[in-house]
Amino acid sequence: MKKRSICFVLFISMNGCVNHYPNDFYTKQTPAAPATDGRSVQQNSNVGSSSASSIDSYKSEIAARISQINANLVYQDNPQAMLRAVIVVHYVLGADGRLLKADIVRSNQDKVAENTALASLKNSAPFPSPSPRLLKGGRFDAS
After folding, report:
1. Are strands 139-142 and 99-106 parallel, antiparallel or unpaired?
2. C-alpha torsion angle, residues 57, 87, 5, 97 (rounded to 10)
3. Beta strand spans in the chain (E)
4. Residues 6+ apart with CB under 8 A from 5
5. Could you tell me the end-to-end alpha-carbon distance of the chain, in angstroms, rounded to an integer?
């Protein structure tokens, strides 16, 4: 369950906050991820370019990709008010959407949750190429 909550927190931290939390967060089952053909997502370099014109909309695209690719780890409803783990990840993408760097910047020291958050991000790369106007020094830098 920790993996589901961490991926969801990563998703929410990229999209904003929620204000309604169900009481059944840790008991509700999440549907299994769709079957894949076994190819690594990392090898898929043909993800195209983003049409996002703002940092927030590009971060939403990234969050949607993470959620889609890691569907079996993402809780689809709103989390309960007191999450067991909150992980904030700082990441840097190249102009081509490749993940260049990912670090934990905030954690409650839950190593399983940290590893799940980082693995979900890495598993979802590469991302659509960000618009050149979103880049600073040829990179997209966000938390």
Report:
1. unpaired
2. 40
3. 88-94, 99-106, 139-142
4. 25, 26, 75, 79, 83, 84, 85, 113
5. 23
Whole-model pTM: value is 0.65
- How many angstroms separate the CA atoms of 104 and 56, rounded? 20
Residues in the chain: 143
Residue with tokens 């190249």: 94
The CATH label, of 3.30.1150, 3.10.10, 3.40.50, 3.30.70, for the domain at 2-15+46-142 is: 3.30.1150
**How confident is the model over 83-128, as pLDDT tens digits?**
667 889 999 999 999 999 999 999 888 888 889 899 999 999 999 9
